[in-house]
Amino acid sequence: MYDNWEQLEEDAKRCKKCRLCQTRNNVVFGVGNKEAKLMFIGEGPGADEDIQGEPFVGKAGKLMNMALEAIGLKREEVYIANIVKCRPPSNRNPEDDEAVACLNYLRNQVILVKPQIIVLLGSVALKNILGKEYGITSSRGKWIEKKGILYMPTWHPAALLRDETKKIDFIKDLKLVMEKMKELNM
Fold first, then answer.
1. 152 three-state secondary structure
2. What is the mean pLDDT of each successive set of 10 residues along the chain, which is 186 residues long?
3. Tell me: domain 5-183, CATH 3.40.470.10, correct?
4. What are the residues whose beta carbons fall under 8 Å from the beta carbon of 4, sequence distance 6 or more?
5. Cβ–Cβ < 8 Å for 85, 27
6. What are the boundaries of each domain within the chain?
7. pTM
8. Are the C-beta atoms of 89 and 97 separated by less than 8 Å?
9. Whole-number Å distance between alpha carbons of 64 and 36
10. Are strands 117-121 and 38-42 parallel, antiparallel or unpaired?
């Protein structure tokens, strides 16, 4: 377990635990408020993220930023990370062994941030954090509590780019998050 951000990020940047390290340009560690009460977890970096070294900076990230603004939040107020820190080739979903190799970094990010609420963006995040028995379609929009943290599974912003109708659910889920934050005086 890590007790400081510098060592955790440095170890992640040097990581060679899986084959994703062979094709990465940058390790995409995480970004935002390191004391945020609200955290977002996606699946893995895409091409834009791999080039810039920051999560959610491509088209899906721009959409997420707009959604955050729509509910009165700024990107800098939350913490954003991914299941894997290196881009899977052709933006495919991370393989199970790749996710397992990277999860310890994410667990340590969660421990250091200490969020009260985590929004799980898409099926890959949901299954790797809460378990393979969860499905995004049946879990989306429903609060799940585990080890003192409230989880809100919702669509990944990239899914909204492929299916515009999911934007309504996505915004609805984020509004539920805002309501819960107000309820908890966050």
1. strand
2. 95 97 97 98 97 95 94 96 97 96 98 98 98 98 97 97 96 97 96
3. yes
4. 112
5. yes
6. 5-183
7. 0.97
8. no
9. 17
10. parallel
